[in-house]
Amino acid sequence: MTTGFWHQVRAVIDRDLLRERRQGDMLWITIPFGAIALLLIPLAIGTDAVLLREIGPGMYWVIVMLFGVLVAVSRASRETLPQQDASALLGLDPAAGFVGRTASSAVFLLIFEVVVGVVAVGLYDISLIGIGWLVTTMLLVAIGLALLGTLTAAIVNSSTAGAALVPLLVAPLSVPLLLGATQTYDGLQGGYSILSWVLLMVAVVLVVSIIGVLTARPLQET
Amino acid sequence: MTQPDATEDTTGVPLVVLEGVGVRIGSTQILRDVTLEIDAGEVVGLFGANGAGKTTVLRLIATLIRPAQGFGTVLGADLSSSERYDVRRRIGMIGHVPGIFPELTLAENLRYAARVAGVPTDRVGGALAAVGLGGAADRTAGAASHGMQRRTEFARELMIDRSLLLLDEPHSALDRDAVDLVEGLIERKAAEGGAVVVVSHDRDRVRAIAHRTVDLIGGTLV
Questions:
Q1: pTM score, two decimals?
Q2: ipTM of the complex, rounded to two decimals
Q3: Is the Cβ pair A221, B66 closer than 8 Å?
Q4: Where are the domains of chain A?
Q5: Which of B88, B104, B118 shows the shortest C-beta gap to A89?
Q6: How many Å lie between the alpha carbon of A73 and the closest alpha carbon of chain B?
Q7: Is A222 on the interface with B (CB under 8 A)?
Q8: Residue B39 near chain A (CB below 8 Å)
Q9: Can you spell out the DSSP letters for A144-159?
Q10: Residues 6+ apart with CB under 8 A from A179
Q11: Residue B5, pLDDT above cutoff 60
Q12: pLDDT tens per residue, range B111-129
């Protein structure tokens, strides 16, 4: 009996969601720390409501990026070599493994964005004009960061340079996502076109998806 | 490429052919000039001191690493080409560190394996019962003993039809009943026309079940 690509993807997603649910790192560590980081900013710069409303969206996206990349990388690099070997010998297509790990990371990053977003709206009185586009932006950022984290983890696992590579790889790659997210929000507030910024984020997602799927097999082998 | 079915009579057909194979990991030459042929129906014992390269030989035969020098085929697939992906699902490997997920229950681990490998998930209960874990199916793998984790891996191998079984210290952490079970599995696999490679420090026990034994000294088979 042969197994389809998407059947394997679903098996990996279910496995990762179950592992995360049992481990609870996201629920009990990452989300509270993200919320605390947002809470510390007004304590550091004062409670000027106008200033906080102005910098709030930017702070939110910076925290999402920093925490998001760490979450995505740590989740994707959580598999030990014996676990990776066992999955490979079950016939797991490396590309299916990449897509499955990315999808499960994206689900958790989206949860993180939503919960920390509610805190940000409450603390900084952020305007929610263009909610449909904001949700689209959150989706694209979650998928983009999940892709970057999963790809980076695969590169790190296959390299002798190890974790030292993470910031070098992730920092430049996440910049277009950060720019796209903040400029989309500003565009919605200012009433100017956001299409080019949304397309930038879509392009990042597409390019990293293609690179991730095409390199999944060679990265597993090195 | 057409591969023989796991149940087909392939006695006398070489399932593994290694000719002058060398393996490098990073800048270290782990294996040198390894030549080995394993026929269908054979049980081969592999001995060697710590660090001799026994696990690397197993991972090489499992197609998980490529040779840096020489030529090799496993189940007819060239180890240096992408053909090796096509045969992976027919190779089972149980290392000395279990490749199961500690957050999942024993049954969930097997269900994941079944889904990825494309075998019916209703085999899980029978496989666990066959290794004496029928009553522990819902125990989290991380809370199970090392012996139970290893039994779970043997259950996985019972569930999936494998042509080649690679066992690293299969007797360790197992009680008398489990050892009998493992030895029964080895005999059955050989009788079905598959092949088994057993790495062990327990020479007497392996000699009792193996058709022949080889020694690995300093990365070279003698």
A1: 0.88
A2: 0.89
A3: yes
A4: 5-221
A5: B88
A6: 18
A7: no
A8: no
A9: HHHHHHHHHHHHHHT-
A10: A197, A200
A11: no
A12: 999 999 999 999 999 999 9
